[in-house]
C-alpha cells in the first residue's frame, strides 16, 4: 500500500472515530482485551476458535475429539527462537493503529495494477 493511500485510510478512520465518539484509548483498550484473550487461550483450531481449557468444553472441541482428534493437537505452543527470528522487524513507533487488525500487511494480488 502506498503512503498516500495509507494516510487517506488513517484520516478516514480518525474522522469516523470522532463522529462516533470513539477515543484512541477506547481502541487501545479493546485491542489489549483481545490480545489478553488470545494469550489466555490454550487451544486453537484452524478456524481461529480458541478455548482457555476452563469451563464448558466448546462445541468445536467436542466435535473434533469425537471425530478422533486429540486435544493436544489444538494446543497452542510458544514460538521457538527460530520462529521468532524469521519474523521481520517492523518499527511501529509512528503507527497509531500498531498491533491492531488495521495495521496488518496484505500481500498484493497477482495481476493487480
Please describe the structure with a list of short key phrases separated by commas or semicolons.
H-NS DNA Binding Protein, 2 domains, 43% helix, 113 residues, elongated, 4 helices, mainly alpha, single chain, 2 strands
CATH topology of the largest domain: H-NS DNA Binding Protein
Distance between the termini: 12 Å
State the order of secondary-structure elements, H for helix, E for strand: HHEEHH
The tally of structural domains comes to 2
The number of strands is: 2
CATH architecture of the largest domain: Irregular
Radius of gyration equals 19 Å
Largest sheet: 2 strands, antiparallel
Task: Count up the helices.
Answer: 4
Structural class: mainly alpha
The CATH class of the largest domain: Few Secondary Structures
Tell me the helix content. Answer: 40-55%
Uncertain runs: none
Beta content comes to under 5%
Question: Order of strands across the biggest sheet?
Answer: 1-2
**If you average the pLDDT, what whole number results?**
80
Gross morphology is elongated
Amino acid at each position: 500500500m502506498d503512503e498516500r493511500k495509507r494516510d487517506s485510510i488513517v484520516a478516514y478512520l480518525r474522522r469516523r472515530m470522532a463522529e462516533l465518539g470513539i477515543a484512541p484509548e477506547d481502541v487501545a483498550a479493546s485491542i489489549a482485551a483481545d490480545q489478553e484473550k488470545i494469550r489466555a487461550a490454550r487451544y486453537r483450531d484452524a478456524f481461529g476458535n480458541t478455548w482457555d481449557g476452563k469451563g464448558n468444553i466448546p462445541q468445536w472441541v467436542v466435535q473434533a475429539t469425537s471425530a478422533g482428534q486429540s486435544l493436544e493437537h489444538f494446543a497452542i505452543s510458544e514460538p521457538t527462537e527460530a520462529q521468532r527470528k524469521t519474523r521481520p522487524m517492523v518499527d511501529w513507533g509512528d503507527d497509531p493503529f500498531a498491533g491492531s487488525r488495521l495495521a496488518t500487511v496484505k500481500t498484493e494480488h497477482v495481476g493487480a495494477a
